[in-house]
Amino acid sequence: LLRQILDQWFESEPLKATLATDAVIGAMASPHTPGSGYVLLHHVMGELEGRRGAWGYVAGGMGALSQAIASAAAAQGAHIFTEKAVCHVLLGREGRAQGVVLQDGTEVRSKLVLSNASPQITFLELTPQEQLPKDFVQRILQVDTRSPVTKINVAVDRLPSFLAAPNPRDGHALPHHQCSIHLNCEGTHLLHQAFTEATHGHPSSRPMIELCIPSVLDPELAPRGCHVVSLFTQYTPSKLAGGQPWDERARNAYADTVFDCIEAYAPGFKASIIGRDILTPPDLERIFGLPGGNIFHGGMSLDQLYFARPVPSYSGYRSPVPGLYLCGSGAHPGGGVMGAAGRNAAQVALEDFRHL
């Protein structure tokens, strides 16, 4: 258990709770859930520009990262099609992947097909079911995709001023404005409490909040004097108790709860809001194709990692369909902005390509 690991190393409860957030981030789990310690390890392994365990902002927003990858691919001769939805994987007579068919009927032929969509979309929606073993399909259906995440993007007309470290009169950003700010994390019992509410179908009354202000480091994201605030919050269940829908009323009610919590730490925050965008688990699924709203394409629990990701016998990026590979977060080693699954899948695909 994560709680036991933290107790061995630290005495400060706020510090332990803050570290514990990375053990439950994106997971329908609490610090008391077996295996949560691995999720913490997953988020602190690796490095950024030589600094172990470091994270960073992408200049220009996360879309800039996609553009950089696209530019690198185009420089090597890749052709990129956007806003061209794939209808299904095109198979040859021998059941081998030969490309994809777009929704407008266009066939894009290829000797190999790599999918960074979730395993559920790749194999349950885009691949002809008669080409897949029944036990494989059943395994994919059983993947735990529960998500506790509601993402809220906020536009504000001034920097938040926290009671613990008030802003200077000149309005300049302080060091904490350039980092992740964790709220409602004074104790691991608060995280467990928030998790328990969600397991009963209720959004947390005191949600875990990770607050970032990327416009402090990247001024081009907002007009002068204004800022964008990214709120990564949990726990919110994908399905509400009593069959209640995640409608506009429910979205706004939860957002108001989050804003009330921030207001307690930074009075005046609510008055500074000039725009907000609320993405609940069903919204994340509908807009981004994340099953259950899960940002990792499936839970990062011990039974869904390593040789079992996405399912046993198919953890090496290949699929039951020859020529079709899985290269997204649903493959080993899982989620996170690191590109490891894509790099590994590309190596496997290139090895197979050389033998065609």
UniProtKB/TrEMBL annotation:
It is found in: Mitochondrion matrix. It comes from the Eukaryota. Keywords: FAD, Flavoprotein. Its main location: mitochondrion. InterPro entries: Amino_oxidase, FAD/NAD-bd_sf. Residues 35-164 form the Amine oxidase domain. Belongs to the carotenoid/retinoid oxidoreductase family. Probable oxidoreductase that may play a role as regulator of mitochondrial function. This is Pyridine nucleotide-disulfide oxidoreductase domain-containing protein 2. It comes from Atlantisia rogersi.
